[in-house]
Design brief:
This protein is α+β, with helices and mostly antiparallel strands. It contains five helices and six strands.
């Protein structure tokens, strides 16, 4: 960052730090102990849709990498598209395999990055729920290097529980790097894994 950037108030964007994903298992313990939220066993990586042979090769590499895991039932990751045109690579595990799920998400992000698709990566998320049916996702913003909670209201069409999100922000401040700019807490309606 140069002197002109400082004078004009520009700041350097945060660099992606995929190792932040490894903080999710400890955050899950905090969520369960303090708020009653447990992992669903589902997570996903979202990226701008990419087509072509290079992406197909990267997808095959991710599948091969995750196929080596014998403790999984079903395909390692499934590719889907949402109604907004974004692509999702979804991983499913049992709820008690959160560290393995985090490893899956890290591997998918890393493979995309190594194969030149880093600029297309948008976010990763891990789903949680409580006994009353409330859902919560911890969303990692790739380009910000930080997390935020997303809590859609049950039975409501595209409405979120802002009070719960702010409560989770305060609760997880010691476990995760939380995105402080609330305008970047984008809703991920209908996200697989949530």
């Amino acid at each position: 960052m140069g002197l002109l950037d400082i004078l004009l108030g520009r700041s350097k964007p945060a660099l992606p730090d995929l190792d932040q994903l490894f903080a999710l298992p400890s955050a899950a313990i905090t969520l369960q102990a303090a708020a009653g939220f447990t992992p669903t066993g589902q997570g996903a990586v979202c990226f701008a849709t990419v087509e072509g042979a290079a992406f197909e090769q990267a997808h095959r590499e991710v599948q091969a990498l995750l196929d080596a895991d014998a403790g999984r039932s079903g395909p390692p990751v499934e590719l889907s598209q949402d109604s907004y045109g974004y692509s999702w690579l979804v991983s499913r595990r049992t709820p008690d395999q959160l560290p393995d799920l985090v490893n899956d998400l890290h591997a998918v992000n890393s493979a995309m990055e190594v194969n030149g698709f880093g600029p297309q990566l948008l976010c990763s998320l891990v789903g949680f729920h409580d006994d009353t049916g409330r859902r919560l996702a911890l969303v990692y913003l790739y380009k910000r290097g930080a997390f935020y909670p997303f809590a859609p209201l049950p039975g409501q069409a595209q409405r979120r529980d802002n009070a719960l999100e702010l409560q989770m922000k305060a609760l997880l401040a010691n476990d995760l790097r939380v995105e402080q700019d609330l305008s970047r807490w984008f809703p991920v309606w209908g996200a697989p894994g949530l």
